[in-house]
Q: What sequence folds into this?
């Protein structure tokens, strides 16, 4: 089977922008996630702490993988997440909601040029998790 | 095709999961005393057990503590084998082996370094989470011909790229060959090129083979 095609790799400036704004993006994603009801349904006992750890991890994974984008690596990470994270109380619905919150955070915190290169990867991951087509940052939020 | 040591690997893993270090040690040491090559023990027992431990944790069948204990036992037994690992005649070649900054999974790279030792190389194993500049400084100070870089976690790929860029920017009397390995590179067969490496190997045995061939080739080209 032909692997799904990834968006074009971000340029160095976009990647540097994404990395330099790690804290801002993570904080904004947590803020966005905690207003999404789906995200709170599972880790509700300590939403900000749990979602914060997840967002920091998600940002870290994205920053690493985007340096040399690879379908196999991203698929492997998503498969790992689908296998492991439900045991930690994080279901696929929560992952999708978290990624949507991350996508909005990327749009909020990066320059438009950078965001245009990064957010398609987040959308791609949402689709691969079964989150449905997601052409723009606003859909679903 | 089944592994020659599949049964030993199963018994070894069972001992680890029972937190029975004594039995795990005895199984391995007995096999080696009866003639099992250390390289086979590394690849077919230790590596197999580590992969299974990872899967067991991923599926929530063991805890992080169990996985860490099992890994520590394996590293303990590896050190028991060192009189055999370091017994080879020296061949006058040097390799620096390291995990990139942020990478904590070091056992695979330790195995690679030990394989080179068994082939008579002098290795400088720097372990987990090594800052990039320290790696470059070590390459310069020991005059290594080869740098072996490992990461298990895909989020450390950016750090692999940064380290290789730093190596390429450094002036050497003879630029070291850079080989990469680890799970991300096994998943994507083209990734090693994307990160700027010269070589890739899927395991320790292949690493020795491809590096030796590359160094031989490099020396023959440099010969007058």
A:
């Amino acid at each position: 089977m032909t692997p799904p095609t990834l968006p074009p790799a971000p340029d160095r400036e976009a990647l540097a922008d994404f990395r330099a704004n790690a804290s801002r993006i993570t904080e904004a994603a947590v803020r966005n996630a905690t207003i999404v009801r789906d995200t709170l349904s599972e880790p509700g006992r300590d939403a900000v702490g749990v979602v914060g750890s997840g967002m920091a991890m998600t940002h870290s994974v994205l920053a690493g993988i985007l340096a040399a984008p690879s379908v196999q690596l991203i698929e492997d990470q998503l498969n790992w997440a689908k296998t492991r994270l439900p045991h930690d109380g994080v279901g696929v619905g929560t992952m999708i909601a978290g990624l949507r919150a991350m996508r909005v955070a990327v749009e909020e915190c990066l320059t438009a040029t950078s965001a245009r290169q990064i957010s398609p990867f987040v959308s791609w991951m949402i689709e691969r998790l079964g989150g449905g087509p997601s052409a723009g940052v606003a859909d679903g939020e | 095709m089944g592994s020659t040591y599949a049964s030993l690997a199963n018994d070894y893993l069972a001992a680890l999961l029972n937190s029975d270090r004594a039995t795990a040690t005895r199984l391995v040491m007995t096999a080696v005393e009866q003639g099992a090559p250390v390289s086979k023990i590394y690849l077919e027992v230790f590596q197999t057990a580590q992969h299974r431990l990872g899967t067991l944790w991923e599926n929530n069948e063991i805890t992080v503590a169990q996985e860490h204990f099992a890994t520590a036992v394996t590293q303990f037994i590896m050190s028991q084998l060192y009189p055999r690992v370091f017994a080879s005649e020296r061949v006058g070649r040097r390799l620096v082996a390291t995990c990139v900054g942020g990478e904590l999974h070091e056992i695979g790279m330790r195995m690679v370094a030990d394989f080179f030792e068994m082939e008579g190389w002098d290795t400088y194993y720097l372990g987990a989470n090594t800052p990039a500049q320290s790696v470059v400084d070590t390459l310069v100070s020991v005059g290594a011909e080869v740098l072996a870089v490992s990461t298990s976690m895909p989020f450390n790929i950016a750090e692999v790229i940064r380290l290789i860029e730093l190596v390429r920017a450094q002036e050497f009397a003879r630029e070291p060959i850079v080989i990469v390995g680890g799970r991300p590179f096994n998943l994507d067969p083209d990734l090693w090129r994307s990160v700027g490496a010269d070589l890739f190997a899927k395991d320790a045995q292949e690493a020795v083979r491809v590096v030796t061939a590359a160094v031989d080739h490099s020396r023959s080209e440099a010969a007058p």
The CA atoms of residues 18 and 66 of chain B lie 9 Å apart. The mean pLDDT of chain B is 94.
